[in-house]
Specification:
Helix content: over 70%
Number of domains: 2
Structural class: mainly alpha
CATH architecture of the largest domain: Alpha Horseshoe
CATH topology of the largest domain: Serine Threonine Protein Phosphatase 5, Tetratricopeptide repeat
Strand content: under 5%
């Protein structure tokens, strides 16, 4: 198979959740190194299968450095951060991707799935303070009725 075909097949497998199979395809001829998007999907596979989050994040950052305008790369970085248990970094990555493409469905779904919170009503008080909880619930109940 030609490298371009290998890359497309690997990306397709990774998107479908077949991470072990995708790794085998990507490593065939080390084709993932030639395409930043493929590199980010390979990194996601490494995180899912091998659990090597640092390697996966490094690969994604290299990919983002080469193709900083590709929202798929930021989606994959965010997914790796979620696997690593770092939700805050995942949200930042998804947000950065949405700045590039406001209609990217994968990023929109990822943000919705995380359930990103609104900012506290009184920003200089902690989120868990009584005042913020009370005002937040009040504002929510008023806005959800309309």
């Amino acid at each position: 198979m030609e490298n371009k075909e290998l890359i497309e097949k690997g990306i397709s497998l990774a998107r479908g959740g077949y991470f072990k199979e995708a790794i085998k395809i990507f490593e065939e001829g080390i084709c993932f190194t030639q395409d930043p998007k493929a590199m980010s999907y390979y990194a996601l596979c490494v995180a899912e299968v091998e659990g090597d989050y640092n390697k996966a994040i490094s690969l994604c950052l290299v990919a983002a450095g080469r193709e900083f305008y590709n929202p798929d790369i930021y989606l994959n970085i965010g997914r790796i951060f979620i696997l690593k248990g770092q939700k805050a970094f995942a949200v930042k990555s998804f947000t950065k991707g949405l700045k590039i493409s406001k209609t990217h469905q994968g990023l929109i779904n990822a943000i919705k799935k995380l359930g990103v919170r609104r900012k506290p009503i009184v920003p200089f008080l902690p989120r868990h303070s009584f005042i913020n909880k009370f005002l937040g619930k009040s504002v929510y109940s008023l806005t959800s009725k309309t």
